Amino acid sequence: MKKKYFINAYIIDPQNSINENGGLIIGENGKIEGVGKKVNTNNIPSREKFIDLKGKYIFPGLVDMRVFVGEPGYEYKENFRTLSNAALSGGVTSVVSMPNTLPVIDNVSMVDFLKRRGRDKSKINIFPAASLTRNTEGIQMTEFGLLKRKGIIAFTDGLKTIQDPQVMSRIMNYAGESDALIMQHAEDNILSTGGLINEGEISTRLGLKGIPSLAEKIIVERDLSFLEEYQCKYHISQISSEKTISVIKRAKEEGKIFSTGVSINNLSLNENDIGDFKTFLKLSPPLRTEQDRLSLINAIGEGLIEVIVSDHKPEDEESKRLTFAKAATGATGIETLLPLALELFHNDSLKLNTIIASITSNPAKILGIDKGSLQIGSDADLCIVDINKPWVVNKANLLSKSKNTPIEDRKLQGQIIKTFIKGEIAFVRA
Questions:
Q1: Which of 18, 61, 187, 428 ranks highest by number of CB atoms within 10 Å?
Q2: Quick check: is 292 catalytic?
């Protein structure tokens, strides 16, 4: 591979505090050799060709902490190849895959299978998460230590919440001893059973059973109480309500160490967008009020929420074009994660550096992986972005196998031009 020289770019790398005009050099080994304002035409050998990016942005490759692959068992929804293509078109170079497959990722043999398939069929970096409990049933813990040695970087029941407090306390205790990262989807089953959308005026008007924000809050409160007793790496996968933010703020003020994520859907949409039973907006956690949405954005700015995820969950059209009660829950989102996040910059809600940190360096730090930065000597996983380019979401142009986007026809500003994996071009916008 020949060296690649980029100049006249705006480079943002939160991990290394780079926010400046400059260039970037990719070595013959696919590693980053130079980055920042020191890289320009004055210090590039005259015989070498360079690419003038004319003010476009270079970001580290995005790290998405919550992605549902579909393989094994649900390949008709998404497989490693289609996920890889979709991710790269969105500038995502690393993902954490959820264990909710068929069979569930809860044993060593399944981990080996997953890693082989991911390596053979995808270009992106896939970091598999294993389930917290056998078959995600919430009863018997999986073998954290053994699974960690096989390369598992996090444990979660994905779509499900550990309901039994005794089981959860045991998990957190063991996680502390084995240095395992626990990721919890926070939703109390008793309060949420049968619920379809946010509990409130709109659920009443539509005649749909609601899911109260209290269902999320009490699980977070419970787990953070356990954190006082059992010191472990604990991450709340995604929150959706102002009530939960108040709990998180208080816990951080008390000195508790944990991290929190939020879905881009809950930052970009609210319950009003559901309109007359739009099933493509049936999500978990549900879309909540506009006040909740604004509170989540503010919480990112205040550092209370560290990570933004796509919550990419492909569903075939047949499972979405049903009555609201029968329709599947979830939406694709890995391709539109960055453009939707950039909306928060364009409308002056958040600083660009804060946004990029939440989808690159922050998740990488929580996961303990050497990704999400433009550090010299690291793999050249990066994306080139025109942050001002306008475009309209058309599901026909999406590369995910399933097209259940919640933002069809939405006008966005900011698009991926190229994505690189280990210095090689993996995606080019046509």
A1: 61
A2: no
